[in-house]
Each structure stands twice: as structure tokens, then as C-alpha cells.
Amino acid sequence: MTPHSPEAAAPALRVRDLRKTYGNGVEALRGVSLDVAPGDFFALLGPNGAGKSTLIGIVSSLVNLSSGSVEVFGTDLVSRRSEAMRLIGLVPQEINFNLFEQPYDILVNYAGFYGIPREEAGPLAEQELRRAHLWDKARVMSRTLSGGMKRRLMIARAMMTRPRLLILDEPTAGVDIEIRRDMWRVLREINAAGTTIILTTHYLEEAESLCRNLAIIDRGTIVEQGPMRALLAKLDVEGFLFDIDGELPTQLPEIEGTTLMAVDSHTLDLDMPRAMDLNRVFAAFEAAGIRIRSMRTKSNRLEELFVRLTGQKEAA
């Protein structure tokens, strides 16, 4: 591939008017179109039944499309399926490796399935296990690994084929925040090294923390897509938490257009229109004798956007 070839300029993923109707008549996708740029970290969000799993299933060739087109780095998924699939790595939600194999063998055997000779697969396995912070566990029984280690092992396995596009389907579902953050570190390293990542998740905090762009799908259609920051900027309400020096007054100040409440005796929660001057808030605090030690934005803005666009209380 030359720098000026069509493939070099192509999106990592291009989906056009993608439709899927199952045998029972259910329309899972109703004309989905989206682009994912090379090197992006992209989130796909949506409630249960929205079409996320069907879309990922089609892109990873686990589900047949009804109509439309899918291209991976300019390679058509239908007419050049084998070529397209060599560009993709998939990390499913379920743990699906042999728990009685060692991590090193799991990776080498997986590479062999894709035609990578054992003499090449060995060094690759070491490299990926080190990146996943699992090299010291290379020769233990996989069933002895912690939940977070098993998840990282699945990512390492997917990376053995050197995919240019890594797809993670709800990779942190059902795991605690410590394991999620452990995986985030690994995924950031993989993305920084040049691999495009598409993440489906129902943890909105995860999408906001990791992803630069996103699409929200609901009832088989894309209801919003674009840069994370631009979409969040559409919200006309902004939330802040204030840490207070000393005790709060018995009566909190009333600031027109805002919602102010005490979280505890030293923390205030404020929602205000984005267009409002924050100096009005500080002036009201000062007049009420409230001394601000620090402030931070609330992290639920993506959730607000999701509720607004889909009417759902949470992405799942």
C-alpha cells in the first residue's frame, strides 16, 4: 500500500445504508451509515435491542447483512471477505478460550489458526503478553488468572494477527471498576500505537474517558454521531460540584435558572445553563458566606445526551 493509494485514504470502517432483517421479520438495522477514521477510538452506544450487536456481528462477519455495504480500509466485506477479515480483530464479551491452556499457548495456537508460523508466533506472543502486563503469567494455567487478566488475555489474543481495526463488544460488561480501568490502560496503549478501536459499551463513563468520536444507535438507526466533545457541547445544561471550606449555611442561596443542592455538609451540586456567567454563581456564594475550596465538572454529561436522544434512562 502506497501513501497515495485509495486504501491509504480510506476510512478504517465505512458503513453505507446497512440493513438487516431477521427471519422472524425483526428489522435490527434500518439504513445505518457511519465512518470511522484510521487511528480513531470510536464508541458505539445504544440501549438493548438498538442494533449494536447486529452491526458489530455484520462487520466481524458473524451475521449476514440484508443490504447495504461495509468496507474495512477500503476492502469490501462481501466481495473480499477474507482480505477484510485479516484486517479485523474481535474481542467478544464472553471469555471464550480454553481455561486449561497456558496464556502463551493460547496466543501461539490462535496465531497458527491464521497461518502464522510458530517461529513467528512465539515472539509475537511474548510482545503481546508483555503489553497486556501478563508475561509473568505466560506459563500458568489460564483458569488461575483473575477476571481482569482474562480480559486482557483476550485482547492480547486478538492482537496476535496484527489487526488494523480492533473491535471490542461490551468487553467490560459485568466487571468491577478496577478491572475496567486496568483494561483502559491496555487499550490506550494499543490505540496510541496506531490500531483503530471500535468499542461498544453500556458504561457511559468508559466511552467518555476513552473515545474521541461516537455514534448512538437506537431502534436500528443512528440518532447522533460525531466528535465526543462536539456532541457533549450540545447540552445546554452544565453540572458542577463545589467543595466548600467550613460549614454550609442553613439556607442555600437562590440563583435564578439554576438547581443548587447540598450533597453533604461540605459539597454543593449545581446545574446551570451553559450560557450563564459562572461569576453570578460565585457572587451569590460570596454573598451567602460560602467559601469555595475547589470545583469540578460532573461526569454525567454523556448520559444526559443519551437520555435526550433516545429517551432511555441508561445505555445497555
UniProtKB/TrEMBL annotation:
Pfam families: ABC_tran (PF00005). Keywords: ATP-binding, Nucleotide-binding, Transport. CDD domains: ABC_DR_subfamily_A. GO terms for molecular function: ATP binding; ATP hydrolysis activity. It comes from Pseudoxanthomonas suwonensis (strain 11-1). This is ABC transporter related protein. It comes from the Bacteria. Coiled coil: none annotated. InterPro entries: AAA+_ATPase (IPR003593), ABC_transporter-like_ATP-bd (IPR003439), ABC_transporter-like_CS (IPR017871), ABC_transporter_ATP-binding (IPR050763), P-loop_NTPase (IPR027417). Residues 13-244 form the ABC transporter domain. PROSITE patterns: ABC_TRANSPORTER_1 (PS00211), ABC_TRANSPORTER_2 (PS50893).
